Each structure stands twice: as structure tokens, then as C-alpha cells.
Amino acid sequence: MVENTSFNDEWNKLQKRFWDNVGSSFTPSATNGDDITPSPQHSLFNQWLNTVDKCWQDHAEVSSGDIDALYNKVYSSSRFFINFSETLHKNPKGETADILMVNYLKEFTDKASVSATDFATAVDTSTKNNIDGNSESTLDSSLDSSLDSSLDGSLDSSLVNASDSVSEESKAKTNQYTQQESKQANFSAMHQLWQLPMANWQQQATFFTSQNQSLKALADYVGDTAKNPEFSAALEAYLVALQELQQLFFKLMINVAKLTVEALQKNTQQALTAKQILSLWLEYFDTQYLDMIATESYSLIYAKVINSWLLVIDKSDKTFAEFMQDTVPSSPVSSSSSANNPHQ
Amino acid sequence: MNNQKSFDELKDYGEKFGQLLQGLKQHDGLLQEQYSERELVLEHDKLKLYHYVPDQHIQKTEADTAQTDQVQTPVLIVYALVNRPSILDLQQGHSAIAQMLKSGLDVYLIDWGYPDASDKHLDLDYYINTQIDACVDLICDTTNIKQVSLMGICQGGVLGLCYSSLHPQRVKSLVTLVTPVDFHTEPDTLSNLVRHVDIDLMVKTMGNIPGDMLSSTFLSLRPYYLQLKKYLNLVESTAQLDEKTKERIANFILMERWIFDSPDQAGEAFREFVQGCYQQNRLIKNTLKVGGCQIDLSTLNIPVLNIYADQDHLVPPASSKALENLIPANQYQEMSVNGGHIGIFVSPKSVKAIFPAIADWLRKHS
Q: What is the annotated signal peptide range for this record (chain B) (predicted)?
């Protein structure tokens, strides 16, 4: 069931972002703070917001689990579109949508190396903080802000951290951690290592969200089982495998961005709507993704992730059901279909 | 982009979104899933065997009437262990079962149920040689015949091939729909994903394989369409809330419910199927073993109609068509259908193309 409170909170945040971002662009600046005349665009936008706001209110009356589940999916997908449209509305120069997208994607690809450096610096800072026992790591703060900013669009430049050097840096740190005497610090540091790329990945692809949540909860779980060396080794293998998988996805995202830039640069008519541009980008993603998962190298890395994840569970002192319940409280697996099935 | 155009686009989207929500509100989650009247004729552990009652009230066209002499041999539908057979009778006006009845078939359907922890040791031998066999026995005893026709769907087609190979005297003819036979064709992304996964460790760790995990895997094969675009399309298609739109929303809800209604898989059967078929490709090599007995399809001397979907992303056409080279040529026929793996069972156009053709073929081979 959808929690109406959190749902409304989310909607309020969305509204605020709309006004913060769009209001300043489209509302005429006032000479007197109390005397602002809305532009025609402002009125239209207000009308649109009222329409959607009414939908939200109506939703509060919907109580069926089926409908709620579907609503959540539709809402998530719609938010993706709305975020993208919102990005277009930030455009104060009135650029065409395709030109805007070109600039956007160029920024996405150009900043990859910078982000990799940022990432390495963040990891280094985090490591020191963790070893010093400082729980308020810089990385956590940057993570939070990164997650917040991700809501602003699907291609926030802060998301880009695809670089082989990231993984090498991370692996080096991982190896370094295993030599620490304190297992607790070891796990804590490893937690920090994978959390950043995983959080970024969450911003890029919604279908990986549940896995990411699982990992965050897993980190808490790890703290209780630090005395189990086999478990420790399995977890380390799992995290390394995850990083390999992430590299593939980061490369994929950059390829998709480049392809989209090329296609948009050829669009001399400049007549694409926000939906068409979004579709273009996503279709490139789908095509590239399907090509990627059909390769032998992907099959091997995917299996490495799954197998090492299974080994983590196998080496823990919990059953699979207990493990899932402990690490993923809202996991569909923990409330498996057979247990909850209404047809039984 | 022109600001006015951009706002208009957003406004239009918001209005459609509102219409959709109104449409959703009108369904209380209790939508009917099963339209055709049926009788429970056998319960065997968690399996239920249903017999569909011919609907005397179905309005038949002249073409229907000309072709709908009752097919003499009853047909037993063997659905996959993954997902639910309810897809065959999910939507009024789109029901494959209703079309089968209309086409003159005497239809029996296996519902495998939902395996629980006590079922983790169930293997393919149990499903094929005990459960399917029990259903065939009952149908033969009830109708005083010696053989039935089998209709295997997806993984159920593999089960049907195995049963027919092991019990040829009990099967008059076999129809396979979207059935994988060669598990190593290109492109086969599902096969590629599981090729190197340690299934022994998976079964050891999990016992039964969670249905939700399988469901997520299937969705990951087309992430853009299945997890984003179809929901955006739903909003886009809701310009006004007329009766047609309401029906479309209802059907969408039913399909969503079906997609995420994935039974857990009995661990041992899952191990045998994935290792034997997806990883080692033993079915096409005639080296798959069920209950210690080899499945040699070259000895399958019964009429087989093999139907595949030309846009199937789960079972590529090449995977299904491989059956042609395994069984005697004079026993094999195939049919290509325009559509995807699931779509052909719910698209009115596909349903009307497939099941009368099957009935016609079975009539000739009854």
C-alpha cells in the first residue's frame, strides 16, 4: 500500500522543485516583491500543477493493493518523463529541445573523467575517516547530495563516474582493507567503497533499485557477522564482481549518450518533443543493453555476481529466507509469491 | 523548444494522467480473471486438473459453425511451471480458452499450483511421470479413450515432448507453442544470462527458487519497454475515459497482476531443467534424462504441430524451429505467428489465428 503521507511529501517536493526551477525562469522579475504578475506560461504551468495535484488527492481514495502497485509503476515512469520535461523548462535561453539535449549529453560524456577523479578523492577521504573511526564521512554527505540532485533529471552530470580507473582504485583500496586488523573497519570501508557507485547506478536505472536497497541493508547485516572469515571473503568477491558489472553499465551509458548526441545533431528540423527525445534516448539504451547482455563477457560477469551473492548467503549463518528478511525488509522475495498468494 | 509547446505537452500529459487515475479508481482490485466455465476434475498434491465446459451460449459465425465439429480426442494443456496458466483465460473477449471451445476442442488444463518449501525435492520425473500421467489417466478413464492430445506451452512444451517420448502409447498428437528446443541459439539472452550461473549453489542456498526473482530476470530482458515505456504508453492512451479506455485499463491491470504472479519453482526440477536444457542443451542432443530414462526425440513417432512467435524475445524462433530436425519429417508441421511470447495468447487477432488452426489440425490427427 502507498503511504499517503510520504506520497504527499514527495509531491510537495516535486512542486517546490518545479517552482524553484521554473518559476524563476518564466515569472517576470518583480520590482516589488509583493507584486508579481504571472506570465501566461506561469498560468499554464499552474493549471497543469493543479491538474496533477487533484490526481494526487484523488489517489488517496484508492485502496486496492493491485491498483496501488500499478499506480506506483505508472507514477515512477511518469516521474521520469516529468523530470526530463522539467529539465527542458529550466532552459532560460529558449533553446530547442534537441539542442538542449545535445548540450546536456555532451556535458554527460565530457565530465566522465572529472567525476572519476572526484570519486577517487571521495573514496580516499572516506577511507581515512573510517579508519579514524569518524562515522560522519565526507562520502556520506556527498552521497546524500548526489542522491538528492539525481531527482533533477535522468542525466545529471554528477552521475557520471565511468572509468576503469575507478575500479582499479577501488580494488586497490579493497585489497588494502583486507590487511587491516579491525574487521569492523574493514567492512565499514568496503561499505563506503561500493555505496557510491551503487548509489549512482540507482540514479541511472530504476530496475536496479531493489538490488541497491538490498546492498545498503546488507552493509548493516555485515556488521554482525564480521567474525566469519568465509563470509568476509565471499562478500569481498561479491563486491568486486559488482564493480565489474557496474563498469559495463557505465560504459553502456556513455555509449548511449554519444549515440544520442550524434542522432540529435543530425536533427536539423529541431521539432522533437520532450517525449520523442526521451524515447530516442531510451531506445538507444534498450538496443545497446540488449546487445550487451547477449555477449559472453556479460554472461560471465553476470554469473560472477550471482554466484558470489549466493556464496555470501551460503556462508552466512542464516537461511535464505532469514537473510532476505534481515537485509531486504521490503523484498518481494521475503514475502514470496507462494506465501502471500491470494489464490491459495 | 517553444515554451508554449513544451507547457502544452506537459499539460496534456497531466490531463491524461488524471484520466488514468480516474480509470484506476473505478476498479477495486477484484477484477474477474477467469471467464470460461470449468470443473475441477482432479486434485493431485498441489496440481489441479480442470475440464472446461463447452459454452452453449457462445455466438458462432457461419465460418465457426462450418468448422466446429467437435474434435474427438480431448486436449490436455500443459502450461509452464513458471507463471500461471490463467493467461489463457484472463480477459473477456481475448480468452484463448474460449476460442478453443468455440473451435470445437474438448479442453483440459493443468494448474500446477504454488510449490512451497515441502516441494523443493520435486523433480521433472515427478511432474512428468507422476502428475501429467495422472491427468492423462483420468481423462482416458473418464472419456473411455486410450490416448489424449497434448498442448504444451513454453516450458510446458518441453514437458509435453518428454512425456510423449516416454509414453508414446498415451499421446495421440502433440502441439507445442513457443517451446524452446535448442537452448543455445543466437540471440537467446535468457539462455546467455543463466549459462554460467551456479545452479547447484542456487538450489542449495534457496531451496525453491523465488518466483519474484525469475520475474525480475524476465523483466530485465527488456528493461526499457517492460519497466518504463508500457506505463508511459498507458498514460498516453488515456485521452478520454470512455468505455473502451476503461476496458483497456482493466485489461492492463489483469496483465500486470498476471506478470507478477510468479510461483516459486521447486528446487530440484529447476536444477534439472536449467542445467539439462539451458546450460547443457541436452534436449536437442537427445541426452536429457528424466527419471533415469533418456529423452530421444528421434523416436517420437506422433504428429507434432510446432507453433512459434516471430517476435519472441524469451524463446527465439530458431530455438523452437530446431524441433524440425529432431523428429521424423513426416510427423512434423510448424506454424509461425506474428507476435511475442505472451502477446499471442492475449491478442484477439493471434488467438483467432492460432486456436482454430490448432483445432483444424487436431481434427485431422484425432
A: none
Query: Residue by residue, what is the 3-state secondary structure of chain A?
Result: CCCHHHHHHHHHHHHHHHHHHHHHHHCCCCCCCCCCCCCHHHHHHHHHHHHHHHHHHHHCCCCCHHHHHHHHHHHHHHHHHHHHHHHHHCCCCCCCHHHHHHHHHHHHHHCHHHHHHHHHHHHHHHHHHHHCCCCCCHHHHHHHHHHHHHCCCCCCHHHCCCCHHHHHHHHHHHHHHHCCCCHHHHHHHHHHHHHHHHHHHHHHCHHHHHHHHHHHHHHHHHHHCCCCHHHHHHHHHHHHHHHHHHHHHHHHHHHHHHHHHHHHHCCCCCCCCHHHHHHHHHHHHHHHHHHHHCCHHHHHHHHHHHHHHHHHHHHCCCCHHHHHHHHCCCCCCCCCHHHHCCCC
B154 is a catalytic site residue: yes
Among the partner residues B9, B221, B260, nearest to A273 by beta-carbon distance:
B9
Rounded-to-integer distance, Cα B337 and Cα B340, Å: 9
**A336:B220 CB<8 A:** no
Please name the CATH architecture into which domain B33-364 falls: 3-Layer(aba) Sandwich (3.40)
**Residues A243, A320 within the same domain:** yes
**Is there a single domain that holds both residue A15 and residue A116?**
no
Range of the domain at A27: 4-94
Mean pLDDT per block of 10 residues along chain A (344 residues) reads 44 49 38 40 49 52 56 62 58 60 57 40 37 31 28 26 35 38 36 37 38 50 61 76 78 76 65 69 84 92 92 77 60 37 34
B40 strand-pairing partners: B50
Residues A197 and A307 in one domain: yes
User: For each successive 10 residues of chain B (366 residues), what is the average pLDDT?
Assistant: 59 74 67 80 96 70 61 95 93 87 95 95 98 98 96 98 97 98 92 95 94 88 79 81 83 86 95 98 97 95 97 94 95 96 92 95 91
Those of residues 173-212 in A touching chain B at CB distance below 8 A are: 205-207, 210
Query: How many domains are there within chain A?
Result: 2
Residue where one domain finishes, among candidates A94, A124, A155: A94
CB distance B197–A290 less than 8 Å? no
Residue partners of A152: CB distance under 8 A and separation at least 6: A17, A21, A83, A86, A87
Q: Kindly state whether residue A99 falls inside one of the protein's structural domains.
A: no
CB contact, 8 Å: A71 with chain B?
yes
Task: Tell me which chain B residues have a C-beta less than 8 angstroms from the C-beta of A343.
Answer: 114, 261
Does the distance separating the beta carbons of B198 and A52 come in below 8 Å? no
User: pLDDT tens-digit profile of B10-28?
Assistant: 667 777 777 777 777 776 5
d(CA B336, CA B309): 6
Question: What are the sequence ranges of the domains in chain B?
Answer: 33-364
Q: From CA B214, how far away is CA A242, in angstroms rounded?
A: 20
Q: Which residue of A has its CA nearest to B264?
A: A338
Q: Is B231 part of the contact surface with chain A (CB cutoff 8 Å)?
A: yes
Q: Which residues of B touch A320 (CB under 8 A)?
A: 205-207
Q: Which of the residues B135, B154, B162, B277 is marked catalytic?
A: B154
Residues A65-90 as b or e (16 or more Cβ within 10 Å = b): ebbbbbbebbbebbebbbbbbbbbbe
Nearest chain A alpha carbon to B202: A310
